[in-house]
Amino acid sequence: MSTVLRRILVTGGAGFLGSHLCERLRAEGHDVLCVDNYFTGRKDNIAHLLGDSLFEAMRHDVTHPLFVEVDEIYNLACPASPIHYQFDPVQTTKTSVIGAINMLGLAKRVKAKILQTSTSEVYGDPTVHPQPESYRGSVNPIGPRACYDEGKRCAETLFFDYHRQHNVRIKVVRIFNTYGPRMHPNDGRVVSNFIVQALKNEPITLYGDGSQTRAFCYVDDMIEGFVRMMDAPDELIGPVNLGNPVETTVAELARLIIELTGARSRIVHRPLPVDDPIQRCPDISAARRLLKWQPQTALRPGLDRTIAYFEKLLTERGETPKRTVAAA
Ligand code: NAD
Ligand code: UDP
Ligand code: UDP
């Protein structure tokens, strides 16, 4: 089966997920335009693509209008880790809301199909487990996470209204915690924090008692989900949950990373951040049924690859890892 080659815009394309997506779309032969303001993204993430004539990188902030001609848009622009999205919370909401309006306006004008990377944070601190798409969530609208959660919720509203009002072809996926190579080493997310701490034999910072849960999806599986959703028939607009439905406590994750790195780190407890969700796990029956998608990479092999990435990164930065036992 031959693929129809398309002009594809990836906003937030220099970030963690965006750079993997650009790579995947180029591998399929598409003409890729990466737009990023480099707030949390890095040119290093896309450096290997820059010599490619069908890959283009543009420095641009999606809160400003963008006039380009494309067939598809993947809208990823938005800081994703709590410390980054809480750094300038007003800008975070603007990025989600005004960014969505601009990208939807663009999609409307050029009749492009547009996919929004929404988040499990739309469910807030959930009272239903695991979370199906029909669950409407439990979000604190005035807490420190609200700039992200409510921004993403409003973006979903805009997507559905542009669809109903202007017939824009939309796709909405709700992403659950995803990890892998090219995560930002200082983004404060649990996987990157624990791995960097372990590689340096520094204390592992467990927030609260570590009994809160998350479900961790490897990046390659997530990208496969994005592409399947974009390529699905126009009638499938979502929202569709994407994530790995294997629930793990944060304390278990800490122990696993210590084991896989052979670290001599001890675990230290820190206060649980405000509004930190206690339990989170996706119900992915819709993705299984409609996209024939489910994660293929288990936590251990996924973490091994991520550890190898961070080990190389720290070595390049002269922050030589003090690992004593090789990872499996
Ligand atoms: P990331 O921070 O690595 O990537 C976001 C990218 O957007 C960065 O390159 C950043 O520079 C760029 N950006 C931010 N504001 C921008 C603006 N105003 N204009 C242009 N570019 C801007 O994070 P990620 O993990 O790759 O997340 C990508 C998307 O997926 C985000 O929308 C995020 O909300 C969503 N998501 C990610 C996860 C996860 O676990 N990684 C979970 C849920 C949702
Ligand atoms: N927009 C854009 N690129 C385009 C078309 C529109 O950035 O190619 C922006 C436009 O500047 C506007 C937003 O998208 O602020 C929403 O556009 P829409 O046409 O829906 O609304 P209007 O222009 O009528 O406010
Ligand atoms: N967490 C932790 N130690 C850290 C970083 C995070 O215990 O050094 C916890 C955090 O409190 C949360 C979970 O790990 O319960 C996931 O945090 P992350 O910031 O990665 O993502 P999110 O809370 O957005 O799911």
Q: Between the first and last Cα atoms, what is the distance in angstroms?
A: 38 Å
Beta content: 15-25%
- The whole-angstrom Rg is 19 Å
What kind of sheet is the major sheet? 7 strands, parallel
Characterise the protein shown here:
The protein has helices at residues 16-27, 82-85, 89-110, 146-166, 190-199, 219-231, 250-261, 285-291, 299-316, and strands at 7-11, 31-36, 55-59, 72-75, 113-119, 170-175, 178-179, 204-207, 213-215, 217-218, 240-242, 247-249, 267-270. The protein is an alpha/beta fold. Strands 3-2-1-4-5-6-11 form a 7-stranded parallel beta sheet, sandwiched between helices. Helix 5 (190-199) packs across helix 9. The longest helix has 22 residues, at 89-110. The mean pLDDT is 96. The chain binds nicotinamide-adenine-dinucleotide and uridine-5'-diphosphate (2 copies). Residues 65-67, 101-102, 105-106, 108-109 line the site of one uridine-5'-diphosphate.
Give the gist of this structure.
The protein is α/β, with parallel strands linked by helices and 328 residues long.
List keywords for this structure.
single chain, alpha/beta, two-stranded parallel ribbon, binds nicotinamide-adenine-dinucleotide, binds uridine-5'-diphosphate
Give the SSE layout.
Layout: E1 7-11, H1 16-27, E2 31-36, E3 55-59, E4 72-75, H2 82-85, H3 89-110, E5 113-119, H4 146-166, E6 170-175, E7 178-179, H5 190-199, E8 204-207, E9 213-215, E10 217-218, H6 219-231, E11 240-242, E12 247-249, H7 250-261, E13 267-270, H8 285-291, H9 299-316
Parallel strand pairs: 1-2, 1-4, 2-3, 4-5, 5-6, 6-11, 7-10, 8-13
Antiparallel strand pairs: 9-12
The structure holds nicotinamide-adenine-dinucleotide and uridine-5'-diphosphate (UDP) (2 copies).
One uridine-5'-diphosphate is lined by residues 65-67, 101-102, 105-106, 108-109.
